[in-house]
Amino acid sequence: xxxxxxxxxxxxxxxxxxxxxxxxxxxxxxxxxxxxxxxxxxxxxxxxxxxxxxxxxxxxxxxxxxxxxxxxxxxxxxxxxxxxxxxxxxxxxxxxxxxxxxxxxxxxxxxxxxxxxxxxxxxxxxxxxxxxxxxxxxxxxxxxxxxxxxxxxxxxxxxxxxxxxxxxxxxxxxxxxxxxxxxxxxxxxxxxxxxxxxxxxxxxxxxxxxxxxxxxxx
Length: 218
Fold this sequence. Notes:
Blueprint: E1 7-8, E2 13-17, H1 25-29, E3 37-41, H2 47-56, E4 61-65, E5 90-93, H3 95-106, E6 113-114, E7 117-118, E8 129-132, E9 137-147, H4 161-180, E10 190-197, H5 205-217
Parallel strand pairs: 2-3, 3-4, 4-5, 9-10
Antiparallel strand pairs: 1-7, 2-6, 8-10
């Protein structure tokens, strides 16, 4: 999962199935999740919320498996977002793999255990691109943005290629207006900032970073 913590288990850890969908304290309070790798079915609450429950009940690792309720909900998913700054390593499994582990964990004679090894690397070469109009009051800045990344599950030319191109067209037309209409229009009082955000698809990271930096520098 995206934002998963690192895992490098040197020995096998007990596997525990969380009943229901792991979205209520009652699902966790009657099992021994502490220091175990917990297995939770997808559904009801968000993936970050499931990670939070795993943290609160001091699990060593979290395995979320698909629920098999529709044709597109059997396979393991790529790019599933866990919780930022999580202390629990998390991984998403297919429905069939999840059920195999559920059956093994529920078999009293199996003594099911698991090892997790998750390598975590920081994203490199990802950033925002911003450009400001040369005039206008910097304390009255209008920010217009679109994200420049995409995901395999969607059409990048639409999400968000259309937005990034639309932003370019807007910037070009505003530049032409400034160049050709200076005698007909008063000076535009606002600064306009055009931004192309990075890492939007994994949690709005680019735009959040921009806002946080703006607050720090204000």
